[in-house]
Each structure stands twice: as structure tokens, then as C-alpha cells.
Write a structure and sequence with these properties.
The protein is an alpha/beta fold. The protein has helices at about 1-10, 25-35, 45-55, 65-75, 110-120, 140-150, 190-200, 210-240, 245-255, 275-285, 295-305, 305-320, 345-355, 395-400, 415-420, 430-435, and strands at about 15-20, 40-45, 75-80, 90-95, 125-130, 160, 180-185, 205-210, 330, 360-365, 370, 385, 400-405, 420-425, 440-445. The chain has two domains: about 1-220, 3-Layer(aba) Sandwich (Rossmann fold); about 305-445, Rossmann fold, CATH 3.40.50. It contains 16 helices and 15 strands. The longest helix has about 30 residues, at about 210-240. The protein is elongated, with a radius of gyration of 24 Å. The model has no long low-confidence stretch (mean pLDDT about 95). The structure holds ligand SAJ.
Amino acid sequence: MTKELLEKKIGERSARIGVIGLGYVGLPLIVEFALKGFDCVGFEVDKAKVEDLNAGRSYIVDVSSEDVQKCIGSGKLSATTDFSLLGGCDVIVICVPTPLRKTKDPDMSYIISAGNEIKHYMRSGQMVILESTTYPGTTDEVLQPMFEEKGFAINKDFLLAFSPERVDPGNPQYQTHNIPKVVGGVSKDSTDVAALLYGQIVDQVHPVSSARVAEACKLWENTFRAINIGMANEMARLCNTLGIDTWEVVRAAATKPFGFMPFYPGPGIGGHCIPLDPHYLSWKARQHGFDSQFISLAEQINSGMPAYVVKLVSTALNDKKKAVNGSKVLILGVAYKKDIDDMRESPALSIIDLLRSRGAEVIYHDPFVPEVTFDHAYTIGAGEPLHNKDLTDELIADSDCVIICTEHSDVDYARVVELAGLIVDTRNALSEDVRNGGKAKIIRL
Ligand code: SAJ
């Protein structure tokens, strides 16, 4: 039976592991398995990634090129675009994107494409694990029938499980090995063997009774964040209305040693997870006639923050008898969160678009992001990329308003406060001393 066969191979680390999708989830995962001595094959549709990896170069901030070189050099890791090699893998982990369509419905095309590749080359004795964040039911409703259509039977011929990824890009404290791994199979055998597999590379594995529980767990985690960030953003607007310092309130509330977890207001939420994942849950719920009000309310508040920031800018310029139209606005930090280079769903894109559509000249400085491109979803500038500008004294002094969108660590904020006339700080990046050290008028969320 597949269980015994795979348990033996995993135990003696002779199991050959395939990972489909070598992005911020798949690459750290496959490198962990390769460093532990498993023979690994990474499957990618992006030739450039394959070439980088086989040349020993990492393109993911949390994976060192040294580790990639070690794995490639030892022959434990290779990357390929040739999906026929899937047939030679004992375990296949799917780490492909799960974006939203324009209609905010799940885009399952990447999972289905990966499933079809696996199905095409499938042989008896394999285990498939899905890590991509998706709605409860995907593993047993979408993937399992694909493999059974080919005449394979669960447990007898294959095992199938879901294990949510929990990568927090740029987090120096938590990396693959010390983030507890939730694992749920479509059968007990699947749960047991998937738990055994992950136990080879992570300190703590948490088995659950089904793939659906594991899928729902991930969405609960990220929905929890989206809703609490939404609450922080609404509280910021409420405190602003009452003339209360939001950040001082959150800092004070965070002194409560139990029953409270601080979240902070910001210019909106970015990344490929928090803005999107809750919609996978609400979409599935709607299929069963359940309307999740919290998810849609959080989306409404969070997606409204860029416009709120632009309103703050407009009011502040107006107080200086300036219009947005014709003003020069400098954006500090455009990545979706601090000290990373990822632009996906970054609220800075919406802020830039709103300002430019109102006639402002917008420039940006972000040491992590050399170029920003706008697709046709934005009002103007589609196809006309913006390029990172060096943070010179002139650039700061010439701006009518500086917006701190992302609080990267390596920016000299004291110099910005000294030279700028007006600053809108959406991240509380400016300490009280820095705020008091310069002449700039400072507006905070
Ligand atoms: N944000 C706020 N206020 C906050 C926290 C975050 O405005 O209090 C914003 C951030 O600036 C960012 C967005 O929300 O634009 C998402 O931030 P995030 O910290 O959730 O970061 P992600 O999306 O890169 O990673 C998250 C993981 N982060 C944490 O748990 C801290 C985790 O939820 C998941 O492992 C990951 O998404 C994922 O891949 O699902």
C-alpha cells in the first residue's frame, strides 16, 4: 500500500520530492527538504527562475544563494520546466498562486493546471500535497476527482493532503523550520504520511482530521488579520475625528498582557494573501447561501484607505493654499510592507494613481523597488513605469508633500523632516523626537 511504501522512503530519506511553483512559498520549502538530504526537483513554468536556481542564484529574500548553491552542488536540488519528471517523484507539493479574478472570484487555473500535469504523469505510489491558499473543499472536490478519473484509488494508489503555507516574507524570527505546520489529508493515511514528511523539516506538525479543516484554518488566520487591520484603520479614522493620537492609543492598549493583539493603521493592505484570501472564504460561503459580513466590511474599509490618505494630503495642501493639481508629491516606500521588495497589491499603487488622476506630479523613493509599473486597472500611467529616485536633499526640499507609505528601515527620516515642508506619515515612521526636530508640518493617520 502507498502508506507503507512512502513511510519507508521518507524515513530513510530516499523519497524524491517534487515542488511545483518555486516562488516565496515553494523555494524555501524545497531548499529545506534538499538541505535535509532529500532528492528534490523544482518545477517552474518561468525559465528565468529555473536558470537562476540551477546557476545557484536565489531570487527570494528569505532564501540565501549560498543555500541554493549548496543544494545544487550536492545534487540534491535541480529545477526544470520539464513536467514529465513528475512521474519520478514520490511526493509532489503544489505551491502555485491562487489569485482573484477581477470579479473577486477565486482563480483556480494555476491549481487545475498543476493538477493536470500531475495527473498526466501520475503513477501508483505517489502523494500529492496542496499548499496554495484556497477555499475549503478544493483538495477533495477539485484535485481528488482528477486523480480518480485516471483510475487511481485513494490510499491504494495515491495519498492526498492540504497543508497551508505560513511564510511571512522578510520575517527574520520565523522561517520554514520553526513555523508549526498544519496538515490535513483526504484520508487518515494521507494525514499520517504528510505529517511524517513535514516532520523531517519542521519542529512542530499539527495534524487535523481533514483537508477541509486545514484549508479553513489558513483562511481563518488570514481573515483574522484582514478584519483586525480593518478595525485598526477604522479606529484611526475615528480617533482622527476626535483629535486623539491613534498610535498612542494602540501603544497603550498593547500593554494589556492578555486578550488584546495590536494591529496598526496603514495606507491599505497589500501582499498576495491578506487582501485576497478572505474572498476565497466568502466566495465558498456564498455558494452555500452564507454571507460573511465581516469580510466584506473589512474589504470596504481597507480598500478605502488609499483614498483616505489622498484626502489627508489634499486637505494638508489646501491648508497651505496649494491644490493637488500641479503639486509635486514624493512617496517614500512603495513596497507593500517594510524592508521587502514586493509590490503586489501595494496600496502605494492606488495612492499614486489617485494623485496622478488629480493632476499631481508623483515621484517615489524606495531602495527595494527600482521600477513601478501600472496595468490597465489603473486610471493613468498604464505602460509608463515610474523609476526609483535617489533621496537627495533637493528631491525632498522640492516636494510640496512627502507621503510615507512604507516605513523602510534604511531611510534617514530626520533629514526628511528637516528638509520637507509637509509630510503625511501613514505608518508612524517618525518618532516623536524626529517629528519635533524639523520644520515640516506632519500629518499622521
Ligand atoms: N498591515 C497593516 N497593519 C497591520 C499589519 C499589516 O496595515 O497591523 C498591512 C501590511 O502593511 C501589508 C498587509 O497588511 O500591506 C499584509 O501584511 P502582513 O503582515 O499580513 O504580511 P504578509 O501578507 O506578507 O504575510 C502574511 C503573514 N503575515 C503575518 O502573519 C505577520 C501571514 O499572515 C501569512 O503567512 C502570509 O500572509 C500568507 O502567505 O498567507
